[in-house]
Amino acid sequence: MTNEYADDLYFLNPDPTKRIRKVNGGRKAYKLGKAKGQIVASNLQTLLVLAGTKYFPELNNKILFLEEDESANTQMVHRFFTQLSQITDLNKLRGICIGRFMSQTGFSEKDSEIAIYEDLFKDVNIPILYNLDFGHSDPLFTIPLGGEAVIDTSQNLLKITNFI
After folding, report:
1. CB 112 within 8 A of CB 131
2. Which residues form the LD-carboxypeptidase C-terminal domain (predicted)?
3. What is the Cα–Cα distance from 153 to 138, expressed in whole angstroms?
């Protein structure tokens, strides 16, 4: 983890080398616990488009990595997580890892990411990490689909242990 990140739309700037850097608060645990399992990773909106089709992935006993891009706002993110909770039993997952949301999403003290998690994950009893360095911010790490991850929130640990 680095001390800074950028989520500006640098590719739209006339000089893409000029980035707006922000303080990286690091990964955070929403639900405590330990888990080990195979990775399923997706953009949240894209995953939901697959709902009800033969292409929707099997999520039971998996660690789900989710991210969303700058086109989503806070209400959309809430709706997406609500839909996910209605089409799958989140307690059958081994864990959830959520990439950092871009500032364009509009989370604030009054309309917070945590409020969504409190609403939708209050009865979920699996480890949940968020504000991770993947998705649409820089730096980001690549997630090996089908690989294996280990989560231990007491140690603030997320480790990729097996690559396919």
Report:
1. no
2. 36-150
3. 23
Collect the ranges in the chain with pLDDT lower than 70. Answer: 1, 164
Residue 16, CA distances (Å) to 136, 137, 151 in order: 15, 14, 35
Q: Residue 105 sits in which domain range?
A: 4-8+30-162
Rounded (5°) CA angle 119-121-122: 75
| Alpha-carbon span 33 to 112, nearest angstrom | 23
The CATH number assigned to the domain holding 85 equals: 3.50.30.60
Instruction: Look at residue 142 in the predicted model and tell me its pLDDT.
Output: 85
Residues forming beta bridges with residue 138, ordered by sequence position: 6
What is the pLDDT at residue 163? Answer: 78
State whether the Cα torsion 116-143-48-12 is positive or negative.
Answer: positive
User: Residue 8 is which amino acid?
Assistant: D
